[in-house]
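My hope is that you will study the record closing this message with an eye to the fold:
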Amino acid sequence: MSSIRPANHYRDQSAGDSAGQPLNRVFERHRICVGPAGAPAPQGSLTTVYGQKRTIFSLRGRPALVWLVATWCPSCQAGTQVMAAHLARLRADGVRVVELEDYQDLGHPGPGMNSFGPKFAGAAYRSPDWTFDVASQALTRAYNPQGYLDIYYLLDASGHITYVNSSPGSTMSQLLARAGGLT
């Protein structure tokens, strides 16, 4: 496997490509997605802001939104604020949010998740339905091989990918519709 790319390689993503295609299709066309809808989510490890290690496998049993961000990215910061405003709706649909800082913040300096989370999620930072963690290098490679600043995967309770997109600040309505279909 190649190493994580330098910061100047990474770029922000909008809710679609230049032709206006949804990112789910763009990801599939360019083989960016870790697997097609229905495929098992790749395994990988993460570290909580409290220093505890866990795996993607440990998320099974309940739908999860696995969201990789770069903490220095403005759309990621804005997306975290939007997520906080919609957390109750996701919770009502049984979805927990796992927001992951990409490994070494994609090679660019940014705040740690222990300061990023409270600053941008506000009171929602303490919710048991939302965790702020740091992805291992292997997890970042598996879920974000192209180095997108803001990419998420919606997993069903059995750990299968059901939806992939980017920038929840711009795609929240689509995410909520997909999350509502999991229960």
